Amino acid sequence: MGSFRAAVGRVVKNCVGLETFNGHTITPVLLDRNAIVVDLGCNKGDFAAMMLGRFDCSLLAIEANPAMVALATKRLGIPVENMAVAGSDGEIDFYLSGNPEASSVVPSIAGGGQSSIRVPSTTLEAWATCRGIASVSVLKVDIEGAELDVIDSWDGRTPRPVQWTVEFHDFMDPSQRPRVLKSIEKLKGFGYEAINPTWPDHIDCLFVDKSALHGLRGVWLRLGWRCISVFHRARGLLRLSRR
């Protein structure tokens, strides 16, 4: 029954231009042949491998954990940058978790008793400016709590992602919830349409630049997202009532 519901969910998403890759929802129809995809928090490269296998895109990957950098570089066949995209430039403590996917610059996300290493850090704006990148087609952000500092420090211009697909981590650290909501409002204030298939959590949030939603296709996508948002909100309320 669960697999049937999942299949129906995928069909409904596809009807409104959404597709999920390794837990991150995007709008594939907005990727052109010259698409630039940036993977922040590449880990072992699952999302990046799906993007390279599906789309004719240029992919840039960044990962703070040196062990994961070596693994992803070998798997993807492209150099993965070893650094943390965060709220400041310089160096930052990176906490190594027993679960490699939970290692983080945020100790509460990485878990207790973990060791730490120092890694280079950069803001999103500084990283893009250094590489001459003004815009990206998809920015995937799964950096275990550091997404809040990244969004907080972003100037709204450089780089200008057409799509952000973000995993927020208030489900792991509820104290982050006010900042998560503030980050969402900031991106909306910068002209992004917000879609959250995981409400009342924020595990898989998509933000699409409204300026990319042209003509009838844009009208159709935004109407579909409104409808699917109502469905997810109703489903979330039902789940909350059962807790």
Topology:
Layout lengths: L1 H14 L3 E3 L2 E3 L8 E6 L5 H9 L2 E7 L2 H11 L3 E3 L1 E2 L4 E7 L10 H4 L4 E8 L1 H8 L3 E7 L5 H7 L6 E7 L10 H13 L2 E4 L9 E5 L5 H28 L1
Parallel strand pairs: 3-4, 3-9, 4-5, 6-8, 9-10
Antiparallel strand pairs: 1-2, 7-8, 10-12, 11-12
Architecture overview:
The protein has 243 residues and is an alpha/beta fold. The chain has a single domain, classed as NAD(P)-binding Rossmann-like Domain (Rossmann fold). The chain is 39% helix and 26% strand. The chain has helices spanning 2-15, 46-54, 66-76, 107-110, 124-131, 147-153, 177-189, 215-242; strands at residues 19-21, 24-26, 35-40, 57-63, 80-82, 84-85, 90-96, 115-122, 135-141, 160-166, 192-195, 205-209. The protein has a 7-stranded mixed beta sheet, sandwiched between helices. The chain has a 3-stranded mixed beta sheet with strand order 6-8-7. Strand 3, helix 2 and strand 4 form a beta-alpha-beta unit. The longest helix has 28 residues, at 215-242. It is globular and about 45 Å long. The two termini are 22 Å apart.
